[in-house]
Amino acid sequence: MVLAVPERFDETLGEGRHRGREYKALKDRVMPQLIEKMERALGIDDLKAHAEVLELATPVTIERFTENRGGAYVGWRYSADQAGAQIPQQSPVENLLLCGHWVAPGGGVSNVMSGGLNAAELAEEYLRSRGTSASPRN
Predict the structure, then answer these.
(1) What are the pLDDT digits (tens) for 47-58?
(2) Lower CB density within 10 Å: C or N end of the chain?
(3) From CA 105, how far away is CA 72, in angstroms rounded?
(4) Are 127 and 133 in contact (CB under 8 A)?
């Protein structure tokens, strides 16, 4: 996985965000560069010869399948000043807790899962304070 500038791929799209020749040509130029970098990083000179399938997902691909603007697959752009930031769980709407890859910087499966766990714990705490419980009864 490498970072990509979404605008560079967007510039190659045709009308209606059609992925035509220019888009494919850019992918065809990028793929060998990525393979070369992987070969150097892994110390495998003929990595491509061992691959059965090569597929390059671009920010356009991610946006197409997730509908996340700019192909943002882990939420918004992370910056150093957000390091260690707590995941905001409570929304401005009363009793609405938030979790997901757009709730906290960094995104990814582990962030989403921990955000879901935090939201569940807050909900349980709230219900207990009201004398009820979200735990299943035996």
Answers:
(1) 999 999 999 999
(2) C
(3) 11
(4) yes
3-state secondary structure labels for all residues of 84-99: CCCCCCECCCCCCECC
Closest CA to 59 of 10, 104, 112: 10
Tally DSSP H helices, then E strands, for the chain.
Answer: 4, 0
Instruction: Let me know: does 61 contact 73? Beta carbons within 8 Å.
Output: no
Answer yes or no: is pLDDT of 122 > 50. yes
Q: In the structure encoding, which two tokens stand for residue 72, read together?
A: 């943002």
Place of tokens 């799209």: 13
By mean pLDDT, which of 15-29, 40-54, 59-73, 101-115 is the weakest?
Answer: 101-115
Residue 97: phi and psi, rounded to 5, are: -100, 150
Give CA separation, 20 vs 25, 38, 103, in Å. 9, 27, 34
